[in-house]
Amino acid sequence: MKQFILFLILQVAPIAPANGQQSAQGACDSAHSLALRGSGRDAFDKHQYEVAARRFSEALDACPRQRDILIELSEAQANLRQFDLAIRSVREFLEGDPASVPGRVALADVYLMAQRLADAKREAEGILNTEPGQPAALKIEGNAEYLLGNVDAAEDTFIELLERHPDDEEGAYMLGRIYYQEGRIDYAIGQFERVLKLNPRSYKAYDNLGLCYEARGENQKAVRHFLASIKLVEKDHPDYDWPFANLADLFLKEGDSEKAFALASKAADRNPYSARNFYLGGKALYELGKTDLCLNWLERSSALDPNYPEPLYLLGQVYRKLGQDGKAKKAQERFREAKAKQRDRLK
Predict the structure, then answer these.
(1) By three-state DSSP, how is residue 185 classified?
(2) DSSP letter at 216?
(3) Can you say how many angstroms the Cα of residue 31 is from the centroid of all Cα atoms in its chain?
């Protein structure tokens, strides 16, 4: 979860007579509701969250007694970053079934996505008090602890999860991410290899092993693992951009700007809302001497994330090279401000 990534804020159609506007004892067209719910799940699996939210709302309208649709509706709303709506939906479900573990897990997960970390931790702990070892609650608690800066507590939580559920692929992946972020590379490799034993097609594990080997200076191994991840995602996961960007970054460090730009372009096509993808493409173009073209990429990067220091630094150099000293000075000032904010976040 700490991948730790950007969402586009979308508007969902008004939630017609869902969310409490009809009585749960109202008329129920179960066949129509089931069809709408299936359509919503298909849209959700395709990351079409606006469509999914609309379909779930319509399914609930068609059969208000099917209250567990509210959980799926809340998940779609959360992925649209409509956190207040998502919390309202799942709380409405819990009004009718306050002891529901799926409902309580859904609420904790929405809190986590909304960065309401203390609330997420509290909800997860409440679930674990009544159902010790509940895997989803342990994951939410572990991620909340890590994001709150409690690294040891997060590690202990994921270790407990894996002791109770040794075949939990997601838990091993999350523990590996913590180890990688904390610079414990050998431990991280162990967890990502554990993931691959459980699921040999885990493209995220291959991608993260590439990062680990790069951190150890074993660049050939890193390239092989990034390429393995790319092969797995190229057709089946068209929105997953990380291995393309990570390999582009590695090629930039090795001085191969042409390969870096080709990969950054693919990453930007897959995720046009990633400031990093456009920064990597802009940096590659700068190294290739294509100053005018790189300016567009860098400006796009800084527009997507005004607090991202690296594109601002390079923008200052590009503006100065183009004789635009006023813009260069402004970019340098924004770079210093962004770096100061970055240092404050790391304290």
Answers:
(1) helix
(2) T
(3) 35
Residue 317 belongs to a domain with what CATH number? 1.25.40.10
* Residue pLDDT, tens place only, 272-321: 999 999 999 999 999 999 999 999 999 999 999 999 999 999 999 999 99
Q: What is the amino acid identity at position 140? A: I
Rounded Cα gap, residues 205 and 286, in angstroms: 31
What are the strands, taking DSSP E only, across 208-311? none
Q: Each residue of 257-271: pLDDT tens digit?
A: 999 999 999 999 999
DSSP class of residue 66 equals: -
Nearest one of 270, 267, 304 to 284, comparing CA atoms: 267
Would 156 be classed as within a structural domain? no
Contact 30, 24 (CB under 8 A): no
Burial class (CB in 10 A: 0-12, 13-18, 19+), 198: middle
Residues 210-222, mean pLDDT to the nearest whole number: 98
Number of domains, the chain: 2
Looking at residue 47, what is its pLDDT? 85
Q: Where in the sequence is the domain holding 246, given as residue range(s)?
A: 242-347
Residue 1: its pLDDT value, please?
Answer: 39
DSSP 8-state symbol, 17: S
| 61 belongs to a structural domain | yes
